[in-house]
Write a structure and sequence with these properties.
- With 659 residues, the chain is of the alpha+beta class.
- Helix content is 52%, strand content 17%.
- It is built from 23 helices and 22 strands.
- The chain has a seven-stranded mixed sheet with strand order 10-22-21-20-11-18-19, with helices on both faces. A six-stranded antiparallel sheet has the order 2-1-3-9-4-7, with no helix packed on it.
- The protein is elongated.
Length: 659
């Protein structure tokens, strides 16, 4: 990362964290789909034990009937509306199958079908609502109002959407910037992690570009507006997330086509099974019974359970180990990835700057401990991330910090304070040295350059105007980063790519440490999306791993997105398909391997279910399949595939995936 100066930050209460939008979350029970599904499930669970215990039908029959009504009326109504548009979907087919099962006395089977599909619809509605919440909440990152400067020298408070290109706005310390623009006057340090992912505030001065929604730390800025509110980087992030989410529609269209063909085939086959024998003189009751038996044995219950138990078991197992996979569809898609793109700050690194180097200058008379104690005492009143890193390092070594007096902070330069009678300055080497050519300054400049070339932020310490040492600060690499990169390379067969908004020097240094050769640095959110789409266009299924608001569009554009949960932004957590709750990066390749195991079990189960259904259907068509035997075969296939899928709940399944 580039050299960034030390300056006092406003108190936490002065402004909200810039990458955290006000929380908007749809409550589960506020969705009608969830309320109906919950009611159907409760009624089913009340009726089932009564039936199994041998209670009279009047005790459990009405409960099943209510379960049919509460869980089935919405998909039935949707199916009927689809019929008016000459479309037949699988939801309506399931209602017909459930009613058919009830008509021949298999009330419990039909109720189970109703509960499964009602619950699935509720989960889909909740996922859609939560994603919409997070995207709308992102717009709250930009302030509602801004201070616009008038030509006559006055100022007025206006809604940010009323700002026009060419307006000049005043951004005071602790305020969020209301529009994308360029600094006309003033100096400050802007926390723009929401846009670039840079872990540290960036010094801004005349001519520098700033973004809406980012936080001005210290120093007032006069900013000329260069983009309309609808065209700011934050607004474009929202658009990119929505657009990328829509690109997943082709998969949904494919599923709908399969459902349509299956539904039409089932209806035609059932009608044929009933009508053809009847036309050749068969008894009405026998034809109806054969048709109802066909409806039961050809029911997709076994197919549904062939798919869901392995995926849901894998989801549960991953959840026990700190990975939240949001749906069975996501669990299946994770196993399909064959390329990986990773963010840097907060993903491969911890996202928190730490002191890594202490370099006392020759002739300063200080050792490392005394240099650190001097710098930490001066930095102690500051809340800047670099200052906190220095103070934390001093406390970690058990050093006693002297009281600092006459503390001042200058944006773009650093801090000064009086410590034990000495005037101590801590800040950017280039600004503090300012062209001096004495031996101490030359040595400090050389040390600072060497640290910056290795991707560190260099901080100069002066005492009474004389350089006495240089500190090196860097974001610490996660302990499991290199092993994770190697595992992902082995799983996908291709080397991961690093996509970061950080500077190229810091990105290249970190990439070399973890074994990544393809590095793309200095990227804005749209650049990350372009890089992902480039690989997708080449036929790759890309897994993106990130944590910030700036990663959200890429997470949405990717085949599958995974967010780091501990420090991840709300938008990244909602947009991502999976969340690493405990920030253990090594769990990502493990869940990919677990997904592949789940997909193989899905294939096994589909084969088992298909064999059962085919045998029973053929038996019913060419001979006489007794209804009890048909039900036994149908339920038996359900039990077999269910137990096979539950194998992934075992701890051994996760252990094998980690290995």
């Amino acid at each position: 990362m580039s050299s960034t100066t030390l300056a006092e930050r406003p108190a936490p209460s002065a402004a909200p964290r810039p990458d955290t939008a006000p929380r908007r979350r749809t409550r589960v029970l506020s969705l009608p789909e969830a309320r109906w599904a919950g009611a159907a499930t409760v009624l089913f669970l009340l009726a089932l034990p009564l039936q199994l215990a041998g209670a009279p039908a009047w005790a459990w029959g009405p409960l099943y009937a209510l379960a049919y009504a509460t869980g089935g009326w919405e998909p039935a109504w949707a199916g009927l509306r689809a019929l008016r548009e000459r479309t037949l979907d699988v939801d309506l087919l399931m209602i017909v199958a459930a009613l058919g099962a009830a008509a021949v006395g298999q009330v419990m089977d039909g109720a189970l079908l109703i509960v499964i599909f009602a619950t699935s619809g509720a989960l889909e509605a909740l996922a859609t609502a939560r994603t919409a919440d997070s995207v709308r909440g992102l717009l709250d990152l930009a302030p509602a109002t801004a201070t616009r400067l008038l030509p006559g020298g006055g100022e007025e408070t206006v809604p940010t959407e009323d700002l026009a290109v060419g307006d000049t706005v005043l951004v005071r310390p602790g305020e969020r910037i209301g529009a994308d623009g360029r600094v006309l006057d003033g100096a400050g340090e802007v926390d723009q992690a929401t846009i670039t992912g840079e872990p540290l505030p960036v010094a801004k001065g005349r001519g520098d570009e700033v973004f809406a929604g980012t936080l001005n730390g210290t120093g007032a800025l006069r900013v000329r507006v260069e983009r309309d509110a609808s065209d700011t980087v934050i607004a474009r992030i929202v658009h990119l997330v929505e657009e990328a989410s829509e690109t997943k529609a082709p998969t949904q269209l494919f599923i709908e086509k399969v459902e349509q063909r299956y539904s039409i085939g089932m209806v035609l086959a059932t009608l044929a099974v009933f009508a053809v024998p009847l036309a050749f003189g068969a008894a009405f009751t026998g034809s109806l019974l054969r048709a109802m038996t066909f409806m039961i044995v050809a029911s997709p219950c076994a197919v549904v359970l062939a798919t869901m138990p392995p995926l849901l078991s894998a989801i549960a197992n991953a959840g026990r180990h700190g990975v939240l996979v949001k749906s069975a569809v996501v669990m299946e898609r994770l196993g399909q990835v064959d390329a990986v793109a990773l963010d840097k700050t907060g993903t491969l690194t911890e996202g928190t700057p730490r002191l890594t180097d202490l370099r006392p200058l020759t002739g300063s008379g200080l050792d490392e401990a005394r240099l650190l104690a001097l710098a930490a005492a001066a930095e102690h009143p500051s809340e800047h991330p670099l200052a906190r890193a220095v103070v934390a390092a001093a406390r970690g070594r058990g050093l006693t910090l002297r009281t600092a007096e006459d503390f001042t902070s200058t944006p773009g330069v650093g801090v000064t304070a009086t410590v034990d009678g000495r005037v101590v300055a801590v800040g950017t080497p280039a600004r503090l040295i300012n062209g001096r050519t004495d031996a101490a300054s030359a040595e400090a400049a050389a040390l600072a350059t060497a640290l910056e070339e290795t991707g560190h932020t260099a901080v100069l310490v002066e005492a009474d105007g004389v350089p006495v040492g240089v500190l090196g600060i860097a974001d610490r690499l996660r302990p499991d980063a290199a092993a994770t990169v190697a595992s992902l390379r082995a799983l996908t067969g291709t080397a991961p790519v690093l996509l970061t908004g950080d500077n190229p020097r810091a990105a290249a240094r970190l990439a070399a440490e973890v074994g990544i050769g393809d590095v793309r640095a200095g990227l804005l959110p749209q650049d990350k999306v372009a890089a992902v789409r480039e690989r997708e266009a080449a036929g790759r299924r890309v897994l993106v791993i990130g944590d910030g608001v700036n990663d959200a569009p890429a997470l949405a554009a990717a085949h599958t997105g995974v967010a780091m949960g501990r420090a991840g932004s709300d938008l990244a957590l909602e947009t991502a398909d999976a969340v690493v709750v405990r920030d253990e990066l090594a769990t990502v390749p493990a869940v990919v391997a677990l997904s592949r195991r789940a997909r193989s079990l899905v294939v096994q189960n589909l084969v088992i279910a298909s064999v059962f259904i085919t045998v029973l259907v053929v038996w019913d068509l060419v001979a006489t399949l007794p209804l009890p035997l048909g039900v036994l075969g149908h339920e038996g296939s359900t039990v077999v595939v269910g137990l096979n899928g539950l194998r992934l709940l075992r701890e051994a399944a996760w252990t094998g995936a980690r290995a």
